[in-house]
Amino acid sequence: DSGVTQTPKHLITATGQRVTLRCSPRSGDLSVYWYQQSLDQGLQFLIQYYNGEERAKGNILERFSAQQFPDLHSELNLSSLELGDSALYFCASSLGWGRNHEQYFGPGTRLTVT
Amino acid sequence: GENVEQHPSTLSVQEGDSAVIKCTYSDSASNYFPWYKQELGKGPQLIIDIRSNVGEKKDQRIAVTLNKTAKHFSLHITETQPEDSAVYFCAASTTGANNLFFGTGTRLTVIP
Fold first, then answer.
1. How confident is the model at residue B94 (pLDDT cuts 50, 70, 90)?
2. Residue in B32, B45, B89 nearest the CB of A100
3. In this complex, do B98 and A55 lie within 8 Å of one another by their Cβ atoms?
4. CB atoms A58 and B99 under 8 Å
5. Closest Cα to residue B67, out of B22, B37, B98, B101?
6. Which pLDDT value is given to residue A17?
7. How many Cβ pairs closer than 8 A exist between chain A and B?
């Protein structure tokens, strides 16, 4: 158990809908990262937050957004969902930002868009 | 951006044999190289990492080597056991950016 928690474990929704994925980092970690894992794209970085502020952006679609709250939990919002958004979404956390701190991954949320 | 290539995509070994997985990276600024193990239905688990100021690192049956000049790094698992069966991912990142660029994964099967 990495100490990173994610809810829900599974999510099934229809095209065009909006969902919110939630992540709580390990105790003491200030950075949160979101990654998407799909069969065709592999594991891809989406976005990083450090202590409430966005620090890095990867291949995140404009339909997706995220935020990190004062209690350091993070939410990833996916809107206008398409079939191709079906994937595993992982949250990872690390101690800080600016140095290469170890990243620990949560168990993931499996999103299925029908 | 960084491009990480990983080989082989699948690897089968007999229990007790060694397994080697190789990765190459493109960005010479990359200086942190972790390895993750992912079991079915679980998130990636950090098993070992190496930073660019070190050439080799060992932790019991697993070791990682780094060749900065050639821009490649490898994972070595000795005395493999059935519980080592999983998908292994290499990754690379740079100081400041922090986000990880992953290889495409290697499915390791250890045959009892």
1. confident
2. B32
3. yes
4. yes
5. B22
6. 98
7. 63
Does B89 sit within 8 Å of A43, measured CB to CB? yes
Sequence-ordered list of residues with C-beta below 8 angstroms from that of A17, at least 6 positions apart, any chain: A81, A113
Q: Which amino acid is at B11?
A: L
Q: Which residue has the tokens 């620090």?
A: A55
Ranges assigned E (strand) in A1-114 = 5-7, 10-13, 19-24, 31-38, 42-50, 53-57, 64-68, 74-78, 87-94, 104-105, 109-113
- Rounded to a whole number of angstroms, the distance from the CA of A83 to the nearest CA of chain B is 21
Give residue B35's pLDDT band: very low, low, confident or very high (50, 70, 90): very high
- Rounded Cα gap, residues A60 and A55, in angstroms: 13
Q: Give per-residue burial for A73-82: e unless 16+ CB within 10 Å, then b.
A: ebbbebeebe
Would you say residue A99 has pLDDT above 80? no
Do residues A56 and B99 lie in contact, with contact meaning Cβ atoms separated by under 8 Å?
A: yes
Q: Which residues contact A91 (CB under 8 A, 6 or more apart)?
A: A4, A6, A21, A23, A25, A32, A33, A34, A35, A74, A76, A105, A106
DSSP β-bridge partners for residue B87: B38, B107
B interface with A, Cβ–Cβ below 8 Å: 31-32, 34, 36, 42-46, 49, 51, 89, 93-105
Q: How far apart are CA B30 and CA B94, in angstroms?
A: 4
